[in-house]
Specification:
Strand content: 5-15%
Number of strands: 18
Distance between the termini: 75 Å
Largest sheet: 5 strands, mixed, barrel
Length: 745
Amino acid sequence: MDERASGHARAGSRAGARTLPLPSARGLLRLADALTARIAHDAAAEAASGRLILWLPAAFAAGILLYFGASTEPSLAASLVLVTLLAGAAVAARARPVMFALTSVLLATVAGFAAGGARTALIAHETIVPPKTPVRLSGFIERVERRTTGDRILLRLDGNAVRGLATAPALVRLSLRKGWAPPVGSHVTQLAQLLPPSGPAMPGAHDFGRAPWFQGIGAIGYGLGRPKAAPARDPPLSVRLAMALDGVRQSLSARIRASLSGVPAEVAVALVAGDRSGIPHAVEESMRVSGLSHILSISGLHMALVAGTLFALARGVLALVPGLALAWPIKSMAALIALSGSAFYLVLSGNDVPAQRSFVMTGLVLAGVMVGRPSLSLRSVGVAAVLVLALTPEAALDPGTQMSFAATLALVAAYERLQPLRAIPRPDGIAGAVVSWVAVLVAGTALTSLVAGLATAPYGIFHFQRVAPYGLLANLAAMPAVSFLVMPAGLAGVLLMPFGWDHLAWPVMGRGIEIMTAVSDWVGTLPGADVRAAFIGAGTLLWLSLALLALCLLRGVLTLAALVPLGIAGLVAGAPMRPDLLVAPDAQTVAVRMPDGRLSVLGASGQKLVVEQWLTREGDRRTAGTRDLAAGFTCDPLGCTAPLPGGGTIAVSRRAESLEADCLNSRMVVTRDAPPRACPADVLTLEKLVRTGTLAFSLRDGTLVAEPSRKAAVSRPWMAPLPPEPASEPGAADAGDPQADAMAP
């Protein structure tokens, strides 16, 4: 009986399955036709609204990236000719929408390419090859950075000849011991050891020599002893301007430190005067882990709070004067005052690229207020991007710039989509108004943190291999204190300083900073707060950037186009191949991958920046100062050895006496001395490593294959000229050729 019942049940189930409606071919065709019609409708609406112009700034930025990706310096003349031809083609194609759009995108791309070349040509200066012996420099102190670990000065040479240099650079950046830096404007002489320009810490890493070159810095090094006073001379204009600005910053810093002390004082100085040198490393690390590090960088948040507070204050004061309020456009006057104050804050804060972008955005919004038109739109973001990148194309490669524009683009796009919510009627009564205001504040802060966090996360993972999973929580808890205490009180302190009442504002600012740092420290201790990730490479970041642009710039069903690059990004994502052996150009700093998967690093103290780049790109929490970082090496007074992946050992020589034994007993030898001519091992000398930069070896099919961080075929103006290639030696690996660096065990 039960079997028959179960049989009937199965039969009924099959019958029910047969009766389920399935989409017919005709239905699918109707659906496809409807979707096609909707896509055509939305595309026509996008074209009619002129929103396709929003893609031109992205094309401009792409052209800049193509310029910096070239292996040799492109011809500026050829780029300008191509810009002219494409501009003519775009004008001729105005009556053909599709052709006009394609030509405009090409024109914007080539214009970005030409902007990079023009900037390089304008800033062009010689990159010197530093001598091996110290040199005596004479010049004016143009900038001083007082850090917790030491001082750093920017020395503008006074034109005197420098013995040991055929051509003296205009600007030299030197590191000094803590407390040794003279005041800005001092005329000094300094004995210094100049160093080769910094390059990438490893293949594919950030080029640390590019940014100083574009700042006009011709050499870097470190001071030997204290700077000595030179005979008094009139400083050049740039130094006089730096002296005036430094005087304002020093006065502000002194007034803040007179009312505050410790971490609140140093953070306040960073936010008001743009000097972050006094912030302890532990505080900066806590802010990074919690997702609040953006507060320490002068950007859109600070510029908006400064401009908004100045605008409200100026408009309120002007409205108190009936003659002005009735006869003059006080709204436009308040906008002009806010714009002037924002410009002063830009200069005072250090004039870095995120602050420039924020000022341009703020200026566009305030200009809209002055002429009676709203300007907070995606168009203003595009205009700001083009202006900033046209003036400083090298900023397109900066992580801060990329994250800043990504966050701004996403936030403005979200703001535009949420505009209809402003029409929702608000509740009546005081209680309802208060509840509504609090709800809007919390929801706005949460949405801002979520949107900005999602937009910038891929760039943070790519550049820093870090994720802040509790960033939303930290911003929800800390931003009210920043928005209502820290920045308004800081602005009030600056405004009250000429009248001697600024001491009333700084304690309020300090209290807000204490709340912010308490939130940061609390969030930083939560389980899993410090997540290290390394699954986004350059290709993945490109596709994710295209997805972000599609989500923000397209509307309607066209937004679904973002799924295509998003899906491709998911397919190509993954941890990049990690090198098994790294050899720095100093021929003393070496990292070998151990059986536990981590790097053991020798000589980290001499190359802290390089070593921490190696560890960061591994997602390794250790630093150059970590104990037992070189535990995989066995050392004696003559040198160190370590097992190589794939078999054999590597020997890092400290004295020439060890080389004969190292050549016989090791598979690879790294040395600063001349090796024996009959050395059977693969030898990496200092001269060869200077030519190749850091060498990264990967084990492939039992063979170590090297990739240099500087390829001989790549030559750009910010790179130091390659020294003459040394004569080949028997048994020495030609490290300049990756194929010649393949070593079988």
